[in-house]
Write a structure and sequence with these properties.
The complex is a heterodimer of chains A (about 500) and B (about 150).
Chain A lengths: L2 H11 L5 E6 L4 E4 L1 H6 L4 H4 L4 H4 L2 H15 L5 E9 L5 E11 L8 E8 L1 H23 L2 E7 L4 E4 L1 H6 L14 H4 L2 H15 L4 E8 L5 E12 L5 E10 L1 H63 L6 H32 L4 E4 L1 H15 L6 E4 L5 E4 H19 L6 E9 L2 E8 L31 H11 L4 E5 L5 E6 L2
Parallel strand pairs in A: 12-14
Antiparallel strand pairs in A: 1-2, 1-5, 3-4, 4-5, 6-7, 6-10, 8-9, 9-10, 11-13, 14-15, 15-17, 16-17
Helix pairs in contact in A: 10-11, 11-14, 12-13, 13-14
Chain B lengths: L7 E4 L3 H11 L8 E4 L2 H8 L16 E4 L8 H9 L9 E5 L4 H10 L3 E4 L4 H18 L3 H8 L1
Parallel strand pairs in B: 1-2, 1-3, 3-4, 4-5
The chains are: A alpha+beta (about 500), B alpha/beta (about 150).
């Protein structure tokens, strides 16, 4: 070997990329370069004399042996394979092995020379790519949307499982890579399909919903969408067709519609029933207010006639008796009137708007001062939070509550009434508090019932409808009303408005 | 019978109610200037001088009509409508006197041109005060259109 040749040989052997190993034809390693030793994480002395087979991963050793034997037998001059080695430290690495039979002089025995390249990194990348493709495929194939991806020439790139299962009944084959999509659209859809595809490629996505018979012969509704596929630079590189089965959705929608229809019908029926009931009630209250009031007025009026015209013919008893008749006629008139008011409140339309409650209550207090001769009570009105409610009806509520507070505190030498509102975890609670006679809280359940009274009429006159009206109005607003009291310790009435 | 001097007309079908109202009006000593009619058709006949009041020029001096709403044959609101839609009678003040505080009645009455709407109180003392003050106002205080018309003749 010339010195020049020797130098070239040395350069090859000492290269840092390719591992080189020499061995005997019976599979023993005789020599190796540094790179090979590095790959195997071993020193040359540890490798020398070792069986080549032992270098391989057990799973690869068998197939390696077959190739090696063919080489040794002279059937082939060389072979190449990608196999796994196991290094001294037990690491498994992928290598590309190129094995040649070296022919020497007749007196020298044949030997093998192997060139080894570490391809672990490439294998790792390949594996990752394979996994990621498998993941993507599994996502695509398990999607309940059918996808067909076309390239710029409208050839099929890929189609997921669902797309193949659903495709038109007229398709005589599955969608294969490289198929011209337009060619496999059934004849009668072809022209319109082509237009849609062209538009989508021009950047106008298109979607429609249509009933098709699929490959399995099942008719179903499909929502189909055409979108262009673009690269990083916004160039159209293909088309994505996505279809989803909307049959169940449509059926559910139809069911909802029919349920809505029947609900609407029911509401109409109920409404008309209610309207009839309301009309009857209206006729009833109308007749009550006319036909019941007239006799009362006549009883009261003619009692008065007796008192005026026959005063000197009546003894004290007769006079008192007539007074009783008169008082009771008047009282019944009040009861009927209150009942009519209650009935009217049930029917009145709520006209809600945002109200300045402080102004409203101030007006109620002023009216009360005007109509009550001597208003002894001291009324303390705090700033009230505004509310969305019916002006007339809520005014009625305050009026009833305030006149109650005045009435039941009038026997206190120093009557005091306090009106305010508190914010109870976001809910505004209005209250009116008096220092009057109060009531026994065990009867508070009766408080808001019609004609329910907790005091004797001789002590505190009234019909027992005022709080029923309050209850009716607050409930109709969707609010709540309640009261706290103790005998002789005053009462507090609370209400909320939603 | 002459009706040309009727100034106050009471239209009320219930005889007892009418009796009470007339009792309240008695203090003004109206005599033949006060007329009570207990039926809707008769009331219209009187106001428009037809039927049994044909040619009586009965409504010329009318200063006020007290009109109940619930009447036999023709309802009070219908009577009101006819009075207020006729050129010759629409200036006659009509006071609705009724038991009902029904909102629709009140609204309808005013829309038809009622001059006042009174809900009759049960308490006769109050009733008396109300009727007296109304009568006093319309008969003695208020200047009626009918009088101007007549004085111009």
């Amino acid at each position: 070997m010339s010195s020049e040749n020797e130098e070239q040989y040395r350069l090859i052997v000492e290269n840092p990329v390719l591992g080189i190993a020499w061995g005997t034809t019976d599979g023993k390693l005789t020599n190796a370069n540094n790179t090979f030793c590095d790959i195997m994480e071993s020193s040359l002395s540890e490798l020398e004399g070792k069986s080549i087979r032992e270098l391989f991963h057990p799973a690869d050793a068998e197939s390696m042996t077959i190739n090696f034997q063919r080489l040794v037998r002279g059937e082939i001059n060389n072979y190449q394979e990608e196999k796994r080695y196991v290094t001294r430290k037990g690491n498994s690495i992928w290598v590309k092995v190129n094995v040649n039979l070296a022919h020497h002089t007749p007196e020298e025995a044949a030997s093998v020379i192997a060139i080894i390249q570490d391809i672990s990194e490439r294998k790792k990348t390949e594996e990752m790519l394979r996994k990621s493709e498998a993941n993507l495929r599994s996502v695509l194939d398990n999607s309940n949307t059918a996808f067909v991806l076309l390239d710029a020439q409208m050839k099929v790139i890929t189609a997921n499982r669902l797309a193949n299962g659903w495709s038109f009944a007229e398709f005589d084959r599955y969608l294969n890579e490289g198929d011209y999509f337009v060619a496999i659209i059934p004849e009668h859809f072809r022209q319109s399909g082509l237009t849609i595809i062209q538009n989508a490629i021009m950047g106008k996505p298109h979607s429609y919903e249509e009933k098709y018979t699929n490959r399995k012969g099942i008719q179903a509704w499909y929502h189909v969408r055409f979108d262009s596929v673009k690269d990083d630079k916004e160039n159209v590189i293909g088309l994505c067709i996505a279809a989803s089965d909307t049959t169940r959705y449509r059926a559910a929608q139809a069911e909802i519609n029919s349920m809505n229809d029947s609900l609407e019908k029911k509401v109409k029926e109920r409404t008309s029933e209610l309207e009839i009931a309301n009309k009857e009630l209206e006729a009833f209250t109308y007749s009550v207010s006319h036909d019941l009031m007239a006799p009362l007025r006549i009883i009261d009026g003619f009692s008065q006639v007796l008192l005026d015209d026959y005063r000197n013919k009546l003894d004290e008893d007769g006079f008192q008796t007539l007074q009783v008749i008169k008082r009771n006629a008047t009282r019944m008139g009040e009861l009927v009137n209150d009942l009519l008011n209650l009935a009217r409140l049930g029917r009145a339309n709520l006209v809600k708007r945002n109200l300045d409650m402080t102004d409203l209550v101030t007006a109620v207090i002023d009216e009360m001062r005007f109509s009550t001769n001597k208003l002894a009570a001291k009324i303390k009105l705090q700033e009230l939070k505004p509310a969305d409610c019916d002006h007339t009806l809520i005014k009625q509520v305050w009026s009833n509550l305030l006149s109650n507070a005045i009435k039941y505190s009038k026997n206190n030498p120093n009557p005091q009434i306090e009106i305010g509102s508190i914010d109870k975890s976001g809910q505004i609670v209005y209250y009116i508090k008096d220092n009057g006679v109060g009531f026994d809280p065990q009867y508070s359940g009766k408080l808001f019932g019609v004609f329910q009274r907790l005091h004797k009429a001789t002590d505190f006159p009234g019909t027992g409808v005022g709080l029923a009206i309050v209850y009716r109005i607050i409930t109709r607003h969707g609010g709540k009303v309640w009261a706290d009291a103790k005998v002789n310790e005053g009462a507090v009435f609370y209400f909320t408005l939603p | 019978m002459k009706y040309t001097d009727v100034e106050v007309l009471l239209v009320e079908d219930n005889p007892y109610e009418a009796q009470l109202a007339l009792r309240c009006l008695k203090q003004f000593n109206l005599g033949s200037r006060l007329l009570h009619i207990d039926d809707g058709v008769d009331a219209l006949d009187f106001i428009f001088a037809c039927g049994k009041y044909e040619g009586s020029r009965s409504s010329e001096m009318l200063k006020v009509i007290f009109l109940d709403l619930k009447l036999p044959r023709i309802e009070g609101l219908e009577i009101l409508r006819r009075i207020k839609s006729d050129e010759h009678t629409k200036t006659i003040p009509v006071i609705i006197l009724t038991s009902s505080g029904e909102e629709t009645d009140i609204r309808n009455a005013y829309q038809l041109g009622a001059n006042s709407f009174i809900i009759k109180p049960v308490d006769f003392d109050i009733f008396n005060q109300v009727i007296s003050s109304i009568a006093n106002y319309w008969i003695f205080t208020n200047e009626s259109a009918g009088l101007i018309k007549r004085s111009k003749k």
